[in-house]
Amino acid sequence: MSRTLRRGTPLGPQINSLEVKRRAKELGADLCGIASAATLNAFPPDPRWPQTPERISRYVKSVIVIVQRIPVGAFRCKGNVPVQYLDMLVLRRMDRIALRLAQELERLGHPSFTLAAQETDWNLKRASYGQLSTRHLGVEAGLGTLGLEVNILTPEFGPRLYLTGILTELELEADQRMEEQVCIGESCSRCLHSCPPDAVRQWGLDKAGCATEAQEFGYMTITNFFSKFVDMDKAQRAAAIRSRDLFGFWQGLLRVVGSFGDCPRCLAVCPVGNDYHAHLADIQKVIPEKTPEKVAKAAAFKRARKEGEALPGLSEWNIRWVGEKGYQGIVARQLQEFKKRQNQ
């Protein structure tokens, strides 16, 4: 285990939420919050396929949610590969931090464990749908709210981060969920404008469309390739074995690149976060993917919300994760504070 995970003072017998957060940050977490398992059980993201702690263990009382930011330099690059490779490194480091924290809690008599930050449970609905939704864990732990493209946005790092949860039988004081909407929403729509496959819905996402860019060599691409491969003749198979696709699958298995990871566009252009103000605002101001059709779509979204139309992403059930009080200027206030510190 690296030296960075040995620094600081391990948890002692007098454990509370503040102590847990202190230790998580000492171990390397960029943010940490606490969610109540009872609240997560009562408000699953989709009640038809409930992602709840009680489905995993009936003894869990709290979920400790940690955040690891993605280094912002990756979003200054021309292609997807740097950010996809960093995704893998960030996830590995986050797993180590979560494991160490769970081990310290167990040594003090509180059974605890962590799940994979990115997984799919095929007993639930298809696509990337794990035992728990880390985005919703983050919202319930008071770390941010969901954006127009349903990534979680934190005030500190916008959507440029990963999260994981540590499930523990220790009852900890939960953090207050944010009711103010962190995402600017339809008035911004920069994520919509930048999305290459135009997959951003109004507080929703076309996951299959998104995957064409985010997971060029993902699971569905592999299965489609081999379903065609079995019907090829000898010459076609020989060509397929030497194809870019097959090399992409191998590289994806080796380094995640292209098989799992983000298309960085919506993450790079999101104006939420001090990391955006410091390192991205200058180069991401202009969005090359913006088209008149996308502008019209965003305008229709804005009009629909203003007129109170029914929006799937803003129902009475799921508006809690977007922010019931709507956008009240958090990004503008943050930018003003950032510029003030710069001047000082």
Describe the protein.
- The protein is an alpha+beta fold and 344 residues long.
- The chain folds into 2 domains: 3-168, no CATH class; 185-308, no CATH class.
- The protein contains 14 helices and 8 strands.
- It has helices at 17-27, 37-42, 81-107, 134-140, 190-194, 207-214, 219-229, 234-241, 244-255, 265-269, 274-279, 292-306, 319-322, 330-343, and strands at 31-36, 62-69, 112-114, 145-146, 152-153, 161-168, 200-201, 204-205.
- The model has no long low-confidence stretch (mean pLDDT 91).
What gap, in angstroms, lies between the N and C termini? Answer: 40 Å
**Largest β sheet strand count, sense and barrel closure:** 4 strands, antiparallel
Strand runs, count: 8
Provide the residue-averaged pLDDT. 91
Radius of gyration: 21 Å
Order of helices and strands: HEHEHEHEEEHEEHHHHHHHHH
Low-confidence stretches: none
Total discrete domains: 2
- Percent in strands: 5-15%
The coarse overall form would be globular
- Helical content (DSSP H or I, runs of 4+): 40-55%
Instruction: Report the structural category.
Output: alpha+beta
Number of helices: 14
Strand order of the largest sheet: 1-2-6-3
Question: What features would you highlight for this structure?
Answer:
single chain, 344 residues, alpha+beta, 2 domains, four-stranded antiparallel beta sheet, two-stranded antiparallel ribbon, 14 helices, 40% helix
